[in-house]
Amino acid sequence: MSTPQAVSTLVLGPSIGTSADSCWGAAAALLRDEFEVVAWELPGHGTDRSPVPDGLTIEDLAARVLTQVDGPFLYAGDSVGALVGLQLLLDVPDRVIGAVLCCTGAKIGDDAGWRERIAQVRASGTASLVSGSVQRWFAPGFVEREPDRVTALMHALGDTSDEGYVAVCGALAACDVRDRLGEIAAPVVAVAGGADQVCPPDLLREIAEGVQQGRLVVLDDVGHQAPAEAPEDVAMIIRELAKEVP
User: Fold this and answer.
1) 42-101 pLDDT, tens per residue?
2) Which of 60, 90, 144, 195 could make an SS bond with 139 (beta carbons 3.0 to 4.6 A apart)?
3) Would you give the DSSP letter of residue 67?
4) Are 9 and 38 in contact (CB under 8 A)?
5) Beta-carbon neighbour count of residue 55 at 10 Å?
6) CA 96 – CA 13 distance, rounded (Å)
7) 36-39 and 73-78 as β-strands: parallel, antiparallel, unpaired?
8) Can you give the pTM of this predicted structure?
9) Architecture category of domain 9-244 in CATH
10) For residue 51, how many C-alpha atoms fall within 13 Å in the half-sphere facing its CB?
11) How far is Cα 183 from Cα 200, in angstroms, rounded to an integer?
């Protein structure tokens, strides 16, 4: 297997309510021989148990990523992790040489929905989200095919601190970069899950058509957790993009 020469660092961003390992572990395992993989955690998620900052924004999350990586890098993210990728493409266009953005949108959800989610977590904790997330996150049949992967994701959700989850909800509610997509010049692959109920393919199409160099890939029989549901496909898309960047 040839190793991409122009790209050595691959930064991976997880979705809300997951850890870097539960979201990206299967895909990262396929890529570690080809890239220096840097997977970051959301506040209060996974191994990150540092104090959760007040008034967290997507810009703050992008700034946190930049403290963990030097030089230029290829970026891949899922859901909010991908939205952070869009922010990085806007904030440091000289650093992000290409991005694979999975199961996301330039604007995800609406304020009312995020307020309802915040209220639920404050009242009943992140464990109360597990049952509904099993229904929303995965394409039909995936729970039966990959029970261990589903269990890891659900454990990560239940282990996420209430404060961390609420903070990321607030950041998502406040973020809308739809009117700035045209500023993004680096190549972007928008990866949609054909069965994604949270971020349907139209949201990914909007990104692919809005940036200067974008294309849409729709993965059939995949829901909202593409890196966990289809790690081989996502890894291949990352490899292909790595070959294209200068």
Assistant:
1) 999 999 999 999 999 999 999 999 999 999 999 999 999 999 999 999 999 999 999 999
2) 195
3) T
4) yes
5) 9
6) 13
7) unpaired
8) 0.95
9) 3-Layer(aba) Sandwich (3.40)
10) 3
11) 23
